[in-house]
Design brief:
alpha/beta
């Protein structure tokens, strides 16, 4: 139950339908050529005996619609000794997917981080600058809350 690479996981759409990697890449390429932007985000939810770790790949255009895919994995909670380590795992999963998609599709990608914007209320706020710099250093645009909606999409699929 260790963290797996994006391309080795089952890819599903919002209805739970499973897609082969080739079919998923074909759709993403077509949608990218149609003008849809690619947004990737991850979220995790801790349960008693596992952590659900979800990465979403969202293809979106304000006037032409959207399409959402996600991968989900269950990992042992013991591999995350702190909130920071779990947030780093989310960052790793998003960047892993972004690198893979950039290599396979060649499009611009925004990486959305599940980092809060309120320094007084959000436990994740102290990671904001560091994580955004990591994303930027890898050649991607990074966004945090309230503009990181792709991580919110991933959150929908962590609950089950």
């Amino acid at each position: 139950m260790e963290i797996q690479k994006f391309e080795n996981l089952k890819i599903r759409d919002i209805y739970g339908e499973e897609f082969s990697l080739d079919e998923f890449l074909r759709i993403c390429k077509e949608e990218s050529e149609r003008g849809l932007g690619m947004f990737i985000g991850s979220d995790s939810q801790k349960f008693f005996s596992k952590v659900n770790l979800v990465t979403s790949v969202c293809l979106h255009h304000p006037r032409k619609g959207a399409q959402v895919f996600y991968v989900k994995q269950k990992v042992r909670p013991e591999i995350f000794p702190s909130l920071r380590s779990r947030m780093m795992a989310e960052l790793y999963c998003s960047l892993d997917a972004a690198f893979f998609m950039r290599e396979m599709i060649g499009c611009d990608i925004e990486v959305h981080l599940d980092i809060g914007s309120d320094p007084k209320k959000c436990k994740t706020f102290p990671f904001k600058k560091e994580f955004l710099n990591i994303v930027k250093g890898q050649g991607f645009v990074g966004r945090t809350k309230p503009n990181s909606w792709a991580s919110g999409v991933a959150d929908w699929f962590t609950k089950n």
